[in-house]
């Protein structure tokens, strides 16, 4: 067996390991058998991942003597819906998996959130394993136990905290990911630098091409990201405080995703986060919290890495400031009606700002939308 990088997520009885490295998928059977020798497995995946990588996973499970069945859903954000959630739940029940068996979330963040939520509620809670196959899922969504689906009222508004028992991140499966989806995941990597790790952001500015190319730099970026997230989750599992930092760029980004109808052709999550992080830095500069140069430094790096950084780059537009505010006020960080944003005082100096003035946000968005119209004209 290979010797992967191991990142522990320390949560008492719910502790688990994240294993990161090339060649882990063919070893999945042996590693899962060591954790649960008798368990039956229900794999949830999407059509793209199934076509490319399911045979490797099932061959490895067969070799380890583990019984398994598979549920395949359509790829894309639209699958984080009530309809697909019902499909997955009924599919799991049809396999007759028991409470002590395992759900395997095999795919990107959409599959992790969807299958993880189904595992949280089927028979009032089944164990599950994350086998993330997108960069975004390997650095972020497979870790920390946030699961859920979208509602027409907003992103991830229906869900549960439910920790996996193991995360197996085979970095070689990323070779089949499209460039667009790889870049989207890179936005969440850059996020860890911008939250609280300026040296990591400086390293990314120098090494992002190597991270995209693969090999050791990519593994290193994934490991740094997972260590950062594991630390925050261990200190604040259910987001009563510090964990909200992981939401940098998401208050704006989630509103953009809701207003594009969760249409992956127009905007994917990482792209929304990229634009959202630039907006968060611009808004911070507007409030005099950080230097006026900070937003262009952040936008410069994300744009160089091939990510969108402005609202006008979202095809088909994103509605009005009032519509964006309507989505923003459904954010889960809202407390007693007051808005919470993750803002910044400088590179890697993000902080949680409670009681942000809605009029200031509306004014800022009106200006950004007017700028976007000028570019589009
Ligand atoms: N739970 C959390 O903590 C958390 C954190 C971040 C993001 N998220 C959620 O994750 C979702 C985004 O995840 P995502 O960016 O992975 O999107 P995704 O799951 O839609 O995957 C992106 C695309 O890549 C394809 N794909 C995945 N792996 C592949 C591979 N190895 N080769 C080829 N194609 C592959 C998928 O089929 C899909 O078309 C959003 O719904 C977001 O809200 C959750
Ligand atoms: O794990 C977290 O906490 C995060 O905020 C990570 C985010 O990247 C992720 O997109 C998460 O799903 C957003 O959480 P939400 O609570 O705003 O839905
Ligand atoms: Zn995210």
Description:
The protein has helices at 28-35, 47-63, 82-94, 109-121, 135-141, 179-196, 198-213, 216-235, 250-259, 269-286, 294-304, 321-328, 358-376; strands spanning 5-9, 16-21, 41-46, 68-73, 102-107, 127-132, 146-151, 154-161, 166-170, 339-344, 350-356. Helix 12 crosses helix 13 (358-376). The strands form 3 sheets. It has a 7-stranded mixed sheet with strand order 1-2-9-6-5-3-4, sandwiched between helices. A two-stranded antiparallel sheet has the order 7-8. The protein has a two-stranded antiparallel ribbon with strand order 10-11. The chain is built from 13 helices and 11 strands. Helices cover 47% and strands 18% of the residues. With 377 residues, it is of the alpha/beta class. It is globular. It has 2 domains: 5-176, Rossmann fold; 179-376, Dehydroquinate synthase-like, alpha domain (Up-down Bundle). Residues 140, 188, 250, 269, 273 line the site of zinc ion. It is found in: Cytoplasm.
Question: How is this fold's topology laid out?
Answer:
Elements: E1 5-9, E2 16-21, H1 28-35, E3 41-46, H2 47-63, E4 68-73, H3 82-94, E5 102-107, H4 109-121, E6 127-132, H5 135-141, E7 146-151, E8 154-161, E9 166-170, H6 179-196, H7 198-213, H8 216-235, H9 250-259, H10 269-286, H11 294-304, H12 321-328, E10 339-344, E11 350-356, H13 358-376
Helix pairs in contact: 1-2, 3-4, 5-6, 5-8, 6-7, 6-10, 7-8, 9-10, 9-12, 10-11, 12-13
Bound molecules: nicotinamide-adenine-dinucleotide (NAD), the ligand O=C(O)C(=O)C[C@@H](O)[C@H](O)[C@H](O)COP(=O)(O)O and zinc ion.
Domain 3-dehydroquinate synthase N-terminal: 71-183
Domain 3-dehydroquinate synthase C-terminal: 185-334
Protein name: 3-dehydroquinate synthase
